[in-house]
Amino acid sequence: MSQATDPATLKKIASQIRRDIVRMVHACQSGHPGASLGCADFFVALYFRVMKHDRKFNMDGAGEDLFFLSNGHISPVWYATLARAGYFDPKELATFRLLNSRLQGHPATHEHLPGIRIASGSLGQGLSVALGAAQAKKLDQDDRFVYVMMGDGEQQEGQVWEAAMYAAHNKIDNVIATIDYNGQQIDGPVNKILNLLDLKAKWESFGWEVIDSNGNNMEEVVKTLAYAKTQAKKGKPVLNLMKTEMGFGVDFMLNDHKWHGVAPNDDQLAKALAQLEETLGDY
Amino acid sequence: MMTKYTFTEKKDTRSGFGVGLHALGKMNSKVVALCADLTGSMKMGDFKKEFPDRFFQVGIAEANMMGLAAGMTISGKIPFTGTFANFSTGRVYDQIRQSIAYSGKNVKICASHAGLTLGEDGATHQILEDIGMMKMLPGMTVIVPCDHNQTKAATLALGDHEGPAYLRFGRPSWPVFTADRPFVIGKADKMIGGSDVTIFACGHLVWNAVEAEALLSAKGISVELINLHTIKPLDVEAILASVEKTRCAVTCEEHQINGGLGDAVAQVISRFNPSPLEMVAVNDSFGESGTPTELLNKYGLGPENIVAAVEKVLRRKK
After folding, report:
1. Could you tell me which residues of chain A have a Cβ less than 8 Å from any Cβ in chain B?
2. B73 and A140 in contact (C-beta within 8 Å)?
3. Mind listing the pLDDT tens digit for each residue in B86-117?
4. Domain spanning B189-317, CATH architecture
5. Can you tell me the ipTM of this complex?
6. What amino acid positions of B are annotated as catalytic residues?
7. Cβ B61–A130 below 8 Å, yes or no?
8. Model pTM?
9. Taking the domain B10-175, which CATH number applies?
């Protein structure tokens, strides 16, 4: 499914997905709303505009673009996106984090939820997996892309840098990685917890083509991903260093690490939903 | 001492892996190999030479290697990762747990230089906890072959096996004695029939058990020797059938007493047919530098230690 969807329509889908996120997290009183809200525009652009993918879902993804989520705790935005893109009935979003659900707290293949190809949650592992999938595509002469998202706090994990080094050395240029650069992690601002300093320079020095972007402007997200594709397949892996605001779309959650992994109460839910247009019908 | 098995040569089990991997590469184009800067030690050179496009040198970055392998399975590749047992398990346990085991990925984790017989490099590299770690992971197959031939056979068998697996082998030259033995994953191999006591062994200690059997036989003790090369899934039926007959058992492994083959057998026997059991294993300690034989003797894993354990269990049986 690759749709030539205009930014205005994409924004409407993103608004519904933001509603889904806060309702899911509120219903089970757990989960991670902050970065899920911040990344909603990126997920919508990817699944409704950029990627060639099949909502009937084949694990091997032959001839399709693949997406891996390394920072698995933002599962609400991924689940809502997959449901709204047709991978499964949006009604199933009501089972998020409940017993016997396919929508585990962190993404998993164990319960066979369509759209998920590997478990994630323990941080730092997704880039390696994406690179393996990308190299397998090259072996199979499959010219589609592999997308992967990581968190910025996740950049503190050593495995990320093992993978970064490997990708450039092996010229894995069919991978487009995105970092959700929201500057927040559980205990506080990233630069107070363990400063990443010049993250762009770090990735460039590891041999990646780095693109700076704004992840909360739909026109720009779409343009950035289109541009990233033009930079791929030139012998270097591509990184989209995407600034977002944690909690984007809900004013009282905006840019505050306190909303990393806290669920809204009933009043907060009502206030949040009042700010987010219902465009596709709540599940 | 006349053993019931003879050997005409000694070879390292890791070379059996290398031969098996190369053969698999020829048979199946889906087989790929990854190595963390130990191509020579892992005997992966022939595969690398003949299939350079399917060989991935990852450098000294084992966590990345496990993730890459998991990612490669998605399109149907069958990745075999190669590094030492310590770096194949303890160093990357979380990567294996999440990206491979929980995700149900068809990765074959192939690990050399396991146990004390690594020798002179010492305790930093002599992992003695790996069987335990790997057998605890749901869905993980754990295989510990006993010689060069069986390591080759196990490698070949893994090419047709679906699901995550851990193959543990080692560094030293060791008797090759299983030329005519069949190998099936999950099927214990009864190498010697007997009636007084059952010895369950895996890995290098199967040969020590062969030697122990000869010593015991000379004393008139009838030993049943079972090579439990697959720790998981465990051949419960074979264990119970043997213990039903002998009413006592000794386990032998180059591993900590906690968590390994002995633990697995004890669980079966205590649940289904409580009988005296002795364990020949490393007794909750780290190893040290030395030659393989010196180390096996110092840490109580030699043929004489197995004989002593059998005599002890027989006294308990009475």
Report:
1. 59-62, 66, 68, 108-110, 117-122, 124-137, 139-140, 142, 158-159, 162-163, 165-166, 169-170
2. no
3. 999 999 999 999 999 999 999 999 999 999 99
4. 3-Layer(aba) Sandwich (3.40)
5. 0.97
6. 62
7. no
8. 0.97
9. 3.40.50.970
